[in-house]
Specification:
Residues 462-497 are annotated as: Disordered. By secondary structure, this protein is mainly α. The chain contains 21 helices and no strands. α9 runs antiparallel to α14. It is globular. The two termini are 34 Å apart.
């Protein structure tokens, strides 16, 4: 459509020079990443407000008993689990920028309303709607990342917005410390709810008017740069935005073994992720007791979280592998959980060290998101696989807090032992997934030979623009890069393991 608009051959393969690639990439990063980072920061902190509220008296003020606080942590993800498949259809059919910004507005208004929730039932209703609106953000951001960045670039971009989870521990804790210190007739957690709710509404308004629904609608690119923005993604072989829901691709996603391998992995890492996320502040509080010091102890933990995501994303991009990096990231949490289980309660420094070792688990989730996204093609299949991966994450996040209860403080032995088992399973399934993707690459190679093509092709989507050179134009002239073919249908698709 863009080529026809410019009076050029619609089937022309547009060569993209290294200079043009870098220039357009820089514009895309500057225009989209700050907004995505802000939204995901609020996405992370809006859920974390429950933990902050617990530190400042929410449990006692609302008369929560038994596992009710655990259910407040789980209900958000139960709502997300329910909403994923409807949102997958919406992401194919609806303009993604407008749809996502309306969802952000909904959760901002919901969080603001939590200020006046004074009992368990009202809190549960508010948390359910919070989760329902937030359910769109992860899949939307994965889809936006696939729409704008090459596969080499996607891991760092997914890692960058997922880094906001770590930044939440740093800035969120410092902001919460300041908000809780305000002298007011309102309780500290009420001030926290209303502040972050209003900020979220403000950011949603900006997003509605700025986030484009596709590269052809980007205000920050001229027509020639829009063509470059689209054509620089040719080597991804991931298809294009179709606005057509294809049931054959939906069924292929359900029957694809790698879909369920990622489902299991994300479930296994999400159980400890939300369990530690919900009860982590209380674990620290059981070690240092003072609530304000607890908030400050979150700062180095958050720095460790963000650093881990950044380093692991860069390593994965540099080494061009995901499975081995994921397995390595599971080892420090296994050591940290063992320390928390075995160290005496009076060994404060040792137990805090064990808790800090848990920080590397935050690097695993974005790698699984990008791993699944980079190995799925076809618009409907991409959205379906993304939805199923987020259903797995939601299911794990529902279970995670239920393995902990306040009555088990300060040991929380049941939850910590279960988390050890889940991290071990992640290592096992990362190895299985790597082996399966290598097998799929061999199968595609055999299909190419049968069709008279080269057995081995250079996966240019994982190379820099300088490394690709000018060989792409001729080599890709008869490929299916911009067809709506799935990864299994397209013999030129290269799987990343």
């Amino acid at each position: 459509m863009m080529l026809a608009k410019l009076g050029r051959d619609p089937h022309e393969i547009v060569p993209v020079s290294a200079a043009d690639d870098a220039r357009v990439l820089r514009r895309i990063d500057i225009a989209l990443l700050p907004l995505m980072l802000a939204v995901y920061f609020l996405h992370a902190i809006d859920k974390a407000t429950l933990s902050y509220a617990a530190v400042f008296g929410l449990i006692d003020d609302t008369d929560l008993v038994g596992d009710q606080f655990s259910w407040l942590g789980s209900i958000v993800f139960l709502a997300q689990l329910v909403m994923q498949l409807p949102f997958a259809l919406a992401l194919v059919k609806l303009p993604i920028g407008k749809f996502t910004s309306i969802m952000v507005l909904g959760w901002g208004l919901t969080l603001t309303s939590m200020t006046w929730a004074h009992d368990f039932h009202r809190l549960m209703v508010a948390r359910f709607f919070l989760g329902a609106f937030e359910a769109s953000v992860g899949p939307s951001f994965v889809a936006i990342t696939q729409m704008w960045w090459r596969r080499r670039e996607q891991t760092l971009r997914v890692g960058s917005w997922y880094c906001m989870n770590g930044l939440t521990w740093v800035l969120g804790s410092l902001i919460t410390y300041g908000l809780a210190s305000i002298d007011s007739h309102m309780r500290p957690y009420q001030i926290i709810f209303i502040f972050f709710g209003v900020v979220t509404v403000f950011v949603a308004t900006i997003m509605f008017f700025w986030m484009p629904d596709s590269p052809t609608e980007a205000r920050f690119l001229n027509d020639d740069d829009k063509v470059i923005a689209i054509n620089r993604l040719r080597s991804n072989h991931m298809g294009v935005m179709s606005r057509e829901w294809r049931y054959d691709h939906f069924l292929e996603a359900l029957g694809d073994p790698k879909t369920w391998l990622w489902f299991v992995m994300i479930f296994c890492v999400s159980v400890p992720s939300n369990g530690i996320g919900t009860f982590g502040v209380l674990i620290i509080k059981s070690i240092v007791s003072d609530p304000f010091k607890t908030m400050l102890f979150n700062v180095p933990v958050g720095i460790a979280h963000a650093s881990t995501v950044a380093i692991s994303s860069y390593a994965s991009m540099k080494w061009k592998v995901k499975g081995p990096v994921i397995s390595i990231l599971c080892l420090p949490p296994l050591a940290g959980l063992s320390v928390l289980l075995l160290a005496p309660e009076d060994r404060t420094a040792v137990r805090l060290t064990g808790f800090f070792l848990l920080s590397t688990f935050t690097g695993i989730t974005p790698l699984i998101y990008s791993w699944s996204a980079q190995n799925t093609a076809g618009d409907t299949k991409r959205k379906t696989v993304s939805a199923l991966v987020f259903i797995g994450a939601s299911a794990g996040n529902v279970l995670g807090p239920l393995l902990f209860t306040p009555e088990e403080a300060p040991r929380y032995s049941r939850g910590l032992k279960a988390n050890c088992a889940f991290f071990s399973l992640v290592i096992v399934f990362a190895g299985i997934t790597t082996a399966y993707l290598r097998r799929l690459n061999r199968s595609h190679s055999e299909r190419r030979v049968a069709l008279g093509k080269k057995a081995e092709v250079m996966d240019m989507s994982l190379e820099t623009a300088e490394e690709v050179g000018e060989e792409e134009e001729e080599e890709r002239r008869d490929d299916k890069a911009f067809s709506d073919a799935t990864d299994l249908e397209n013999e030129d698709f290269a799987f990343v393991y």
